[in-house]
Amino acid sequence: GLNPSFTKKGMVVLKSVKGNRAFFSSVAPLTSDELEKLKMLAKKNDIYRLRLQTGSGSSGEDYVTTYTPACGIMSSNLSDHVWIQFDQTGEVMGISLETATSQCVNGDNFSIQDWNTSVEVTQTLLGPSPDTQSYIEKLKREEQERAKGQTEDKRSFLAKYWMYIVPVVLIMMLSGGGDQQGGGGGGGGGQ
Amino acid sequence: MKKFGRSMMTGNILLLLGVLQTLPISQALYEDQIGKFDWHQQYVGKITDMFWDQSFNAGKRVLVSSERHVLASVHSHNGSLAWRKVLEDGPRGRIDKTLHSGNLLVTLTGGGRFVRKWNAGSGLADWEVSLPGSKSGRADLVQCGRDLLAVMIQDAVYGLDPRSGRQKWSVALPQSNQVVYTHLFTSGTNLFVIGQSLGQQVTRVTVDMEGVVRSTESVKAPWLSESTQCEVTNGGVLICYRSEDQSLQTLTLTDGQVFKSTSLQILGLEPSEEVSMETVRKVEEPLIFLRTAKNHMALLELTNDGVKLKKDLPSICAAQVVSLDDKSMLFTLERIPGELKMKVYDLETGSEMADLYQTITYLPQHGYPQRIEVLMFKKRDLRLGCRFAILSEDYSMQMVLKAGKIAWRREEALAYVLSVEMIDLPVSENQAKYEDEFGSHKDDIATMFMKRFKTQISQLKTYIQQQLQKLQGHRHHHHDTEAMAESGSDDDDEDLTRDEFNLNKLIVLVTGAGKVFGVRSTNGHIEWEHFFPELAPFDGNNQQKLLLFVQRTTAHFPNPPQCTVVGKHKGTGNGFLFSFNPISGEPVDTPPTGQVLNYRITQTSMLGELDDHFLRGILLMDPDNQIHVFPGKCLSVLKKTFGSQYMFVADRETGFIKGYRTVPNQGKFLMENVWTVNLQKKQQTITQVVGKRPLEQVHSQGRVLGDRSVLYRYLNPNLVVVVTEGEFIEQSQRGGVFNTINLYLLDSVTGHMVFHCSHKRAKGPITVVHSENWVVYNYFNQKSRRLEMAVLELYEGKEQSNSTAFSSFSSPRQPLVLRQSYIMPLFISTMATTVTEKGITSKQIIFALKLGGLLALPKALLDPRRPLVPTQETMEEGTIPYIPELPVNAEAIINYNQSLYNVQGIHTSPAGLESTSLVLSYGLDLYFTRVQPSKMFDVLKEDFDYFFISAVLLGMFVVTIATQKLSARRALSRAWK
Fold this sequence. Notes:
Radius of gyration of chain A: 40 Å
Mean pLDDT of chain B: 85
Number of strands of chain B: 67
Number of strands of chain A: 8
Largest interface: A-B, 41 and 54 residues
Membrane topology (chain B): Single-pass type I membrane protein
Mean pLDDT of chain A: 73
Largest sheet of chain B: 7 strands, antiparallel
Distance between the termini of chain B: 61 Å
Number of helices of chain A: 4
Oligomer: heterodimer
Protein name (chain B): ER membrane protein complex subunit 1
Low-confidence stretches of chain B: 1-26, 475-492
Structural class of chain B: mainly beta
Signal peptide (chain B): 1-28
Strand content of chain B: 35-45%
Largest sheet of chain A: 5 strands, mixed
Domain ER membrane protein complex subunit 1 C-terminal (chain B): 771-976
Subcellular location (chain B): Endoplasmic reticulum membrane
Structural class of chain A: alpha+beta
Order of helices and strands of chain A: EEHEEHEEEEHH
């Protein structure tokens, strides 16, 4: 409806923003009256709202709010998952609510009254920055490797490439030898 | 990227080669392709000062200076720019005063920071002097005789040599911390500096030509207020207009001791809200124009006894006093429907000079003329002649060279583009008929058959005609186009039909001047234009916005396309709508002068579904959270789909972002607040909210990794990026205040914060590009003093939650966010990403460099999966090894040598070809071109060798037949054996 009414659901106890988990202590199970209300909401395909008080609660500015289809609350058997977002100074920025499914099921004989709420917290992360450090390190490493490669290879030209040179020389020698032989043979024929 | 890394490369050298293969995106043009796909238009912005060039180009050029920090020289015969100087951005480049007399052209810019003398012929700077500048931003410049230029800034007056710029003297002004010095004036052998103290007095400092303060006097002026306008006229009279009691206060500078007051009513003038004064410089008499309305002026004469009405000029919208051979003449312009009437009066006798009277054809879409600048000359037969330039309300400049005709016009409103859409052109008549079949539902089979038959016959006919034309000769056609190019822009009556590849569009440009243009994408010529003097942009945080919605595209023949401009009414601040057919420019649904709403607009959105006539309605939210639908006929669509209409409002003042859903309430629709996010106004201010392009086409749902598994993309169409900028105080020993920027990725339906990160010691201005599953943004790193470019990519993971439809309620709440950052070696003013028809082509990001280039880099360079150390797997995936700096190579500059200044935005639009994306960059210049991020994979190259291919094909065919015959014969002979 246009004028939503809220009832206290519980308190979130947060030891440190750094960890991802927070503890949720439920104040009371749903009264049957509230359960009826929830059923009505689900029937009308209306929304279930949740708000988190961050200040004294005297003005609208002290709350952050969220919502989810009421059907989802029913069909996931009152188990919901709450996300709270904090900024880096630890101020609450937003809240959001997730249920296992958001499909609607017939909730006429729905009777669970205990909430099963889990809370997860996220905090503003540090944005990415150019990774020059490791790139330079990588370059240095590559340079070192290259330098190392060069020191290893400080053998003479012959020592390095003898495996290529020897066959070439051999082939040349062989073919040259053949020519000489052929020349010799020819000379012999002339005699 | 191209197929990279498919081959089994190993080793560092091969890898490097592979990288090199991918990087050069050879966008470069051949020299003969210049201007084939692109066009460039240079503007100067709203002209504030205009002079006829008096140097050797006398009468051939007009010198102009504009509020967009431009000094330029315009050829008077065709309106093209002889030269243009774009001065610095921001307050440093603001032109305080332009002075032109004889050969001297001097500007004072940046609140008295720079004095520059220009060569009026070439536009080169002769000298520049840097001064301390004025704290109040007020500065003035006058010429005193041949040898002295006097410059006034807040606390001193400087005397400069006009030839060299050498400083001759300087003199400090008294009480400069209490008095705001506003005017500098020279009369006889003295300089007068006028200072104002609000509510108290006017200070007059007299300085002689040698830079010695002669006297400092103050005259009581308790009526001085913020809204008081003051001017100094020739003959040394200070005249101030008080809007509170509509009176003029005058003071003779040489000897006056008290202000004399004259009320407008005594002068017989009707007071109004918008009174302004325009000085008269070209004659010696103390005259001034008073403007009481857009079309009512009065010429006042200032005497020792106060103000005298020299001539009342009712229904005159622009006037100027010009003298030639000691004869002073008053030129006046009156607007009558379709024409301008120019009357000239002899100032001494007051009689009209009938031989100079003329009427000029004038289009109503220019609004009222505001200024004229007349050049008088004597013709050969000693009769008087004149040519003049007209500046109008719509920022246009028009030139009258021969009596009665506008020779050319410059639409300077195009330097203020705020919104752009590219609209498909309608299909040709034939194809339209074809589609007509599907448009109507009532026909029976026989008529439908007849229709089909007829259209196909006519299609065949046009096809044959086309072929015949082709055969008849290419040359003839070629000649035609050349002739057309020569005859100029006005007469291209080539009708607007779609081309084969749908590459040509009609570009709708909405400008901050309140003018809407339809421009051809082929050559940049204006097809239609509308001017709304009352249309103003929404503004906040120094960002101006005028919204342009495409309600119906050209695809729904026979329904015409429809666009709507949403803005603000200048006077009341209420909503202002204008709806039109983007192809013809004709108004639809709204009156031709636009529709003023009776409420303010706090948020707008479009309906999710089309109505029966394929029209997409616009939702307008008023301050009472009520929803209005435009046009009213789309209300039925909202009635059906209100359950899925969400909106959100980011409030800069409070730092709250509020999400709303639509609820019906007593026959109306209201927006109900359902989620709230508090972005802590104490620490930061919301500067940007960037959503995705609506109806964006994403081809691939995932990304194939090196091990052949798929990483699914997080494609949330409701995701918006909210950027805030703030300051924080360092806690360490050094302390100090640093800037910080924060990025929030919000789901605009549920209010869930998908991701948030911050950059310390980083500063804006920030440009965000948000597309598909990634966000690219730039910021200035204060610590390293460089521009950095960061990228966030969102993935659902290795499993997809819902492959058919996306719902904000059931999507994964915490997608995988990959992020990486790079160094951008050059400063940029804005950036955008390319879009293509189906989203198959890889994306490019186009950066508008401050140097004037448009740099197109492949998105693959801004990929957070770029590995530092490449492995076999990453090569298989096709990622480029990480290098912190983004490469800038000259071939990636898509506007080659056509430098673009002050680029405000880049608009990209898909073409009919998947490979091609159309790009329009706007700002001071308009530049249109095409890019092919993955090269032209769907079109044969121009130099494709048809002959060779067909010869080979034919040859193969012949060989096949021959061998078949041969083998058959052989088989036969073998069978006989």
